[in-house]
Amino acid sequence: MNKRNIFPPTSKRVFLRTDPQINADIRNQTIRSLNIFKNVDAAEVTERIGVLSQEWDTERVLEVNASLLVILSSYLGIKTSRIWFLLTGAVAIFMLQHALQGWCPPLPFIRKWGVRTADEIYAEKTALKVMRGDFTGECANAEDALAKAEKQ
């Protein structure tokens, strides 16, 4: 395996390490969401963009998960048994693996729950802006708008 495959681009590493069917499910959910907003007024689109700006991405979910596990396992290691420090070490190893390769044990579950990457959230926001007319050129449907946004 060449170096490029071991260390995928930062913005694509989670997507590349996620089951293709889950990626397709997430994309289809995005298209369904865009279809809801294709015939609404600009104020509603702006409100949706605001909601998307608050959406937690995979990185944030993983960081919170890892932090809580480190705090808990460190506390238990101090108060009960040093064996809990093994969990602290395992979490550190998994986060390093995620940072380098874009995968760690909780990631498949997080993606299956529909948690999107920052790029996927950004693509929906951009598609909404395209549909709202913020950019030149019209898009006839949600799929075209999303495809245009993903190229941005």
Order of helices and strands: HHHHHHHHH
Helix content: over 70%
Judged by helices, strands and strand pairing, the structural class is mainly alpha
Which percent band covers the strand fraction?
Answer: under 5%
Number of strands: 0
- The average pLDDT value, as a whole number, equals 90
**Distance between the amino and carboxyl termini:** 30 Å
Name the quaternary structure.
Answer: single chain
How many whole angstroms does the radius of gyration measure?
Answer: 19 Å
DSSP summary: helix tally: 9
Shape: elongated
- Low-confidence stretches are none
Biggest beta sheet attributes:
none
Short description:
With 152 residues, the protein is mostly helical. It contains 9 helices and no strands. Helix 3 runs parallel beside helix 8, helix 4 (42-54) runs antiparallel to helix 8 (118-132) and helix 8 crosses helix 9.
Keywords, separated by commas or semicolons:
152 residues; 9 helices; mainly alpha; 0% strand; single chain
List the topology elements.
Layout: H1 3-6, H2 13-16, H3 20-37, H4 42-54, H5 58-79, H6 85-101, H7 107-112, H8 118-132, H9 142-151
Helix pairs in contact: 3-8, 4-8, 5-6, 8-9
Explain this structure.
It is a single chain. 72% of the residues lie in helices and 0% in strands. With 152 residues, it is mainly α. It has a domain at 58-115. Helix 4 packs antiparallel against helix 8 and helix 8 (118-132) packs across helix 9. The longest helix has 22 residues, at 58-79. It starts with a helix and ends with a helix. The model has no long low-confidence stretch (mean pLDDT 90).
